[in-house]
Specification:
about 90 residues; mainly beta; 4-stranded antiparallel beta sheet; 3-stranded antiparallel beta sheet; about 0% helix; binds zinc ion
């Protein structure tokens, strides 16, 4: 697990994807309002699926004002760091 403390100074990229309510893998829309999970193959209404946001942000850390490129994934209740590197 990674923790980054600092200030977001730039949002570089934002995207979202619909994920399975069972296994949290990507759901591909097939027909109107219905899609199936690429992993467990469950057909489900897109309106009942979860939404994951992917963000690439530039964070200025408190230590010597270093900057880090941080990739985040999350929904309404949480946000996880999935990658980071110092610039
Ligand atoms: Zn699934």
């Amino acid at each position: 697990m990674a923790t980054v403390h600092g200030k977001i100074v730039e949002v570089m990229n934002v995207s979202k994807t619909v994920v399975c309510i069972s296994c949290f893998k990507k759901v591909t829309p097939k027909i109107d309002k219905v899609g199936n999970c690429e992993s467990c193959k469950v057909m489900q209404f897109l309106s009942s699926c979860l939404l994951h946001w992917y963000l690439r942000v530039l964070v200025q850390t408190n230590e010597n004002e270093k900057r880090r490129l941080v990739c985040l994934i999350g929904g309404a209740q949480y946000c996880l760091v999935i990658g980071q590197r110092e610039l």
